[in-house]
Amino acid sequence: QVQLVESGGGLVQPGGSLRLSCAASGSIFSTYAMSWYRQAPGKQRDLVAAISTNGNTNYADSVKGRFTISRDNAKNTVYLQMNSLKPEDTAVYYCRGSNYRGTYWGQGTQVTVSS
C-alpha cells in the first residue's frame, strides 16, 4: 500500500504561483505512475497532469504551458508547479498514484485563485 499526503495549497492572486507537493510513504514510490487531479465546486474531477515511472509527462490542455509536474524518487515526492494562475484554476487538487496492484488517492489540498 501507499499513503499520499498533499500540501502547498492556499490563496493566491491571479497571475501568481504555487507549488503543490505530494509525499508518499508505505511502498516503493518509483514503481507508481503519479498524477494530479482537480475538482472545482459543481464540476467533475479532472486530470491535470501525469508523470510515468519513466518521467514521461502529459497535461490537460487548460494548464499546458503553465503547470509542470515532476517527481523526486529519492524524496518519494511528486510536485505540481503552477504558474500564471487563473481564477478558473480554483479547485481541490488531489494526488493519485497507480501501479499494477491498484490506485490510491490523497486527501486533497485547496487552491483558491482570487484577487
Proportion of β residues? over 45%
Overall mean confidence score, pLDDT: 96
- Describe the main β-sheet briefly: 7 strands, mixed
The count of helical stretches stands at 0
| Rg, nearest Å | 13 Å
Order of helices and strands: EEEEEEEEEEE
- How does the helix and strand content classify structurally? mainly beta
Strand segment count: 11
Q: Span from first to last CA?
A: 40 Å
Could you characterize the architecture of this molecule?
- By secondary structure, the chain is mainly β.
- Helices cover 0% and strands 55% of the residues.
- The strands form two sheets. Strands 2, 4, 5, 6, 9, 10 and 11 form a seven-stranded mixed beta sheet that branches. The chain has a four-stranded antiparallel beta sheet with strand order 1-3-8-7, with no helix packed on it.
- Strand 4 and strand 5 form a beta hairpin.
- The protein is globular.
- It starts with a strand and ends with a strand.
Secondary-structure topology with pairs:
Elements: E1 3-7, E2 10-12, E3 18-25, E4 33-39, E5 45-51, E6 57-59, E7 67-72, E8 77-82, E9 91-99, E10 102-105, E11 109-113
Structure described in brief:
The chain has 115 residues and is mainly β.
Provide key terms for this protein.
single chain; 115 residues; mainly beta; 4-stranded antiparallel sheet; globular
